[in-house]
Amino acid sequence: MLAQAAPALARGWHKLRPRDADALVLAGWAELATDPWGALAFCRLAAEARPGDPTPWVAALAALRSLGRPRAELAPLWEEIRARDPWHREAHLQILGYLSPEEQGSQSALRDFLDDVVAVMPPDAPAACPPPTAAVRQYHRDLDGGGVRALGASRYWTQPHVARWVDQALTSWLSPGHLRQAAAVADLGLLAYCLVRAGRTGDARPVFTAIDGLVTPWPWGHEGEPLERYTFYAGRL
User: Fold this and answer.
1) Residue 185 domain-assigned?
2) Which range among 63-77, 106-120, 166-180 has the greatest average pLDDT?
């Protein structure tokens, strides 16, 4: 987020501290949008500067994803990340995006990945958000598809595997000690969105209470201004 918001800061920090691991990886993230190959070079240097840190490998994974490289090229990076942090949130989201139908994957590839992850992931893992994230993205695909797909989108949340993902998140994410990662509010916002779009307003109330008015652009902004959409649904509880 910092690299996207202040790329000049990232470049300036790297210029001042060209061998600093944090400066290198931030520069790598900053280069992703304009020069993915350059980002990879920064990531290699950052990984050498701090071998135990998964962050450079995650940035490199994002760079290969943006380049649309074959899955065989991403697999070694995924293994390096897993060896350092098996439940890295951003790494799982990068793979989720890569395997989507819009990129290099398909619905079946997504389901296989999610089934494998859910089967072994602890409920309080930082990477607990990919299943509901995938659900919301598919729901948006249906809405944006128009025609029969859009008309039937409201029934999407009743599909057994989707309802199971939402139920699992609802059961565990509000428990004390869960969702300790920095993106906890974003994950809770995602869950709240799933529940209100599924018509489960009673279940959504404690989640909205936990969010305490902190609104993220996605997924609330898919159908309008994020704060307005959040306020609309919160007012209906």
Assistant:
1) yes
2) 63-77
